[in-house]
Write a structure and sequence with these properties.
The protein has 459 residues and is of the alpha/beta class. It has helices at residues 12-18, 21-31, 46-55, 67-74, 85-94, 127-136, 156-166, 190-196, 206-216, 229-260, 264-271, 294-301, 307-331, 357-367, 393-397, 410-413, 417-423, 438-443, and strands at residues 2-5, 8-11, 36-40, 59-63, 98-101, 109-112, 145-148, 177-180, 199-203, 224-228, 338-342, 371-375, 402-405, 428-431, 447-450. Helices cover 42% and strands 14% of the residues. Strand 11, helix 14 (357-367) and strand 12 (371-375) form a beta-alpha-beta unit. The protein binds ligand SAJ.
């Protein structure tokens, strides 16, 4: 039997010999010393993680290179929206366990939770990870644990982070522990999932995995599963790719249904009654900083192999254009139309606008000559790059010829068609997320078009 490790397959006996009891005990000893940690990157993952460790009794130095983020947090503010996060951060700060800095300081463990976006050419941009690893170097000491949480292409931990850390003169596996521990939390449910989800921990060696297990078991209640670093990187990319490919399938089903005059929502509901079928939801496209980005890391790493993954990405990336095509069919000539666009976030009930298909749809409508006024209840003052933003819903609706619903935010579920009809000039609604009750809106004189239903004409 053999254990795949760092791209190399080595025999189990060798694995056991290398990572046997002596190291394991070292890891046990290290564990009790996780009294002070340093979390680099205070975004959607780093801030909840730092605060959760702090409220579990660990002294945490939260580090962010953005002085605005540091100032906001130090002054009791919050730069991101996530349910429950304000209370958690306040509790962490009040406990005295969480401090916010622009630079790391000495600690027993360092967690890197910085963004890994892609560049124009869809290649991974690892500059933030590299900068964070370099920032740790002056503070790295023998016996420290370094954890990478940022989603990264395969082999980043052993091929990029480890060599950077070794510029300290310390050696991986001998002087410091190193692990890849992917975050798997769903925006909107981060605080609960951080604690309850199972956690995959990939060590560059067995002691590193054990050391990271001891760190995360301070608050994780889900099962902790140990593997090697590269497998853990692959696991993370597989999870998000799996979702992306399945959403692409749902979007393709929607397009097929529109062509055949079928209601895709009804068809999906019926297909999902099969015990082994679970089709996801079509929509305006796939956004956010994870699912629309991560599969490209696999395409980049092996373009000759990742063919389905690339196609799924392309299908999802085309969906905003498809929605605009539906708008053209529903609204007629777009030039000169005043369109009220509801929702700009990348998905329901978050304030995150990154890679949002809703924003792309607004831009495409503008390019077609429409006058778009958007309303985003969770980011009323967002910078939206040329999309005028209404401070209140009514302002967006006032005098609009058409309404396009782009995000299934909870507050939109209770929109009153009567009130909307009073404010709008026209009576056409394009629902890209299947939130509106067709009968209610049609009862108020609206023409309702939905993604996956098209104009509802069956030959
Ligand atoms: N979407 C659809 N149809 C669906 C589900 C989602 O069109 O049926 C769209 C959403 O509207 C959104 C995009 O896909 O635009 C992504 O949303 P999501 O809720 O699927 O995922 P994220 O990006 O918010 O979070 C994902 C999660 N990964 C998986 O579910 C496998 C989360 O667990 C990860 O931690 C996160 O990526 C991450 O940080 O990587």
């Amino acid at each position: 039997m053999s254990v795949p490790l760092f791209g190399v397959t080595i025999g189990t006996q060798h694995y056991k010999k290398c990572f046997a009891a002596r190291h394991f005990q070292l890891a046990e000893k290290i564990a009790v010393r996780f009294q002070k940690i340093c979390v680099l990157g205070l975004g959607y993952i780093g801030l909840p993680t730092a605060s959760t460790f702090a409220t579990h009794g660990v002294q945490v130095v939260g580090v962010d290179v953005n002085p605005d983020v540091v100032n906001t947090l130090r002054n009791g503010g919050l730069h991101i929206h996530e349910p429950g996060l304000r209370t958690l951060v306040q509790a962490a700060l009040r406990s005295g366990n969480l401090t916010i800095q622009e630079q790391p300081s000495e600690a027993e463990a360092f967690i890197i939770a910085v963004p890994t976006p892609f560049q124009e050419d869809k290649l991974a941009d690892l500059r933030a990870v590299e900068a964070a690893a370099q920032a740790i170097v002056p503070y790295l000491k023998k016996g420290n644990l370094v954890v990478l949480e940022s989603t990264s292409p395969p082999l980043t931990t052993v091929g990029k982070v480890a060599p950077l850390l070794e510029t300290s003169g310390l050696r991986r596996g001998e002087d410091f522990y190193l692990a890849y521990v992917p975050e798997r939390v769903l925006p909107g449910y981060i605080l609960r999932e951080l604690i309850e989800n199972d956690r995959v921990i990939g060590g560059i060696d067995r002691p590193s995995a054990e050391a990271a297990r001891h760190l995360y078991s301070l608050f994780v209640r889900g099962e902790i599963l140990l593997t090697d670093a590269t497998t853990a990187e692959m696991v993370k990319l597989m999870e998000n790719t799996y979702r992306d490919v399945n959403i692409a399938l749902a979007n393709e089903f929607a397009r097929l249904a529109e062509r055949f005059g079928v209601n895709v929502w009804e068809a999906i509901e019926l297909a999902n009654r099969h015990p082994r079928v679970k089709i996801l939801r079509p929509g305006p496209g796939v956004g956010g900083h994870c699912i629309s980005v991560d599969p490209w890391f696999l395409v980049e790493a092996a373009p000759d192999l990742a063919r389905l993954i690339r196609t799924a990405r392309q299908v999802n990336d085309e969906q905003p254009q498809h929605v605009v095509e539906l708008a053209r069919q529903a609204f007629g000539e777009l030039a000169g139309l005043r369109v009220a666009a509801l929702g700009l976030a990348y998905k329901a009930d978050v304030d995150d606008l990154r890679e949002s298909p809703a924003i792309e749809i607004c831009h495409l409508l503008q390019q077609a000559g429409a006058e778009v006024i958007a309303y985003e209840p969770y980011r009323k003052e967002a910078q939206t790059n040329g999309i005028p933003l209404a401070a209140e819903l009514d302002q967006a609706l006032q005098g609009a010829d058409c309404l396009i619903l782009l995000v299934a935010h909870r507050p939109f579920g209770t929109l009153s068609p009567t009130a909307v009809a009073r404010a709008m000039r026209g009576r056409t609604v394009l629902d890209a997320v299947n939130l509106l009750n067709r009968a209610m809106w049609e009862g108020e004189g609206f023409q309702v078009i939905k993604v996956g239903e098209g104009l509802g004409v069956r030959p």
